[in-house]
Amino acid sequence: MSDQLGPLRPERTKATMSYALISERAHKALKRYRCIWCGEQIPVGTRYVREFSVYDGDVQKHTWHPECKGAAEEFFRESGEDEFAPWENERPLSHAEQEFQSWDCSLLAQGMLALRA
C-alpha cells in the first residue's frame, strides 16, 4: 500500500479481500447520523467515530457509535471475519451505561437509609 493513504490498519485478507484504514477520527455530531454497526441514530451533540477506508478496492465512509466501533474491532479480531452485516448488530452499552449498571443499587439504598437515620 502507498504511504499516501496515511495510517493503515493491518490488512485482513480472505481470498482477494483487503482493508486499509485511511482515517478515523472522533467528532461531535452536528447533524444526525446512522451507525453502520447497529443502525441506531447518532443524535446531534453526541460523540461518534468517522471512518474513511478502502475495502476490496472501494472507498468507504462510515459513522459509528464509539462503543460500536469497539465491538466491531473485537468481532474482527475474535472471529477472523473481514465483513459484517451493516445495521444488523447489537449496540453494546456505552462506558457510562456500563458504569451505571455496575453500581450495586442495594448498597446505594442502604446508604440512603443510613443518611436518614
Notes on the protein architecture:
- The chain has one domain (3-92).
- It is globular and about 60 Å long.
- It has 117 residues and is an alpha+beta fold.
- The protein has helices spanning 66-79, 95-102, 105-116; strands at residues 19-28, 33-34, 41-42, 47-55, 58-64.
- The protein has a three-stranded antiparallel β-sheet.
Number of domains: 1
For the sheet with most strands, the description reads: 3 strands, antiparallel
- Which range does the strand content fall in? 25-35%
The mean pLDDT is: 79
Low-confidence stretches: 1-14
Which descriptor suits the 3D outline?
globular
Q: In DSSP terms, counting alpha (H) and pi (I) runs of 4 or more, how many helices?
A: 3
Which percent bin holds the helix content?
25-40%
Rg: 19 Å
Secondary structural class: alpha+beta
Question: N-to-C SSE series?
Answer: EEEEEHHH
- Spatially, the strands of the biggest sheet line up as 1-4-5
Distance between the termini: 68 Å
Got a strand count? 5
Descriptive keywords:
single chain, 117 residues, alpha+beta, three-stranded antiparallel sheet, two-stranded antiparallel ribbon, 3 helices, globular
Topology summary:
Layout: E1 19-28, E2 33-34, E3 41-42, E4 47-55, E5 58-64, H1 66-79, H2 95-102, H3 105-116
In short:
This protein is α+β, with helices and mostly antiparallel strands. The protein has helices at 66-79, 95-102, 105-116; strands spanning 19-28, 33-34, 41-42, 47-55, 58-64.
